[in-house]
Amino acid sequence: MRALNVLTVPAFNDNYLWLIHDGEHAAVVDPGDAAPILAALKANHLSLTAILTTHHHADHVGGVTALLQAYNVPVYGPARDRIPAVTRQLHEGDVVALEKPGLRFHVIDVPGHTLGHIAYYEQEHGWLFCGDTLFAGGCGRLFEGTPAQMLSSLDKLAALPDDTKVYCAHEYTMSNLRFAQAAEPGNSAITERLHIEQAKRDSHLPTVPSSIGLEKKTNPFLRSRETAVINQLRAENKLREADPVTAFAALREWKNNF
Ligand SMILES: [Zn+2]
What we know:
Layout: E1 5-11, E2 15-21, E3 25-29, H1 34-43, E4 47-52, H2 58-61, H3 64-70, E5 75-78, E6 88-90, E7 95-98, E8 103-109, E9 118-122, E10 127-131, E11 134-135, E12 138-139, H4 147-158, E13 165-168, H5 173-183, H6 188-202, E14 210-211, H7 212-218, H8 227-235, H9 244-256
Parallel strand pairs: 3-4, 4-5, 5-6, 10-13
Antiparallel strand pairs: 1-2, 2-3, 7-8, 8-9, 9-10, 11-12, 13-14
Zinc ion is lined by residues 55, 57, 113, 132.
């Protein structure tokens, strides 16, 4: 079997599009723009075999139509988001099995950022493609879903093995970690991570992928039940009742205005 690789394709200001390939065939995740994908396919002598989408936002699906003009391939996407080009609608528990490149994705429903948002988990390689749900150091905005939905979605992702690589769709890490530090000032793992990720950015390197283990230690949105985070929310006068959903909602609201 050929070894598989994940290629990072930057697009727009801060998006990452992902090409998973075996040196010959490639599947793309969230092609918001076709041009950089077509260029990366050409540069790496790859042929596109499948398109996977996590949710309906234009910066994740905007390139699908143009890619279909160059490659007649299946388009996978969430059943509950409105993505016209999707040919295979997916629900939680579905498996996307691709022959070339050889991949098996488990579909996880992660509503919150949009109502139909899904994530793709490749168990054999320990890869998670989670769109705008879990970010390095943060989480997506709640455009359509409720805090309860997003908290439950993030809980599902946090339950994956610690060494799972998290391929999120944006380079928001530094601003996320600055918020993380405000939300949990005593957490030395956040301070340490800030330095490590800043060094990557200074060298123009992506901070993505991260890992579930690192997110559990440093991402306030996976730590909203921690006493230190709840105490900080109280100290900032942003929380009276400490049930998990209220704390999560207060945290997300604080980040919106941070
Ligand atoms: Zn989005």
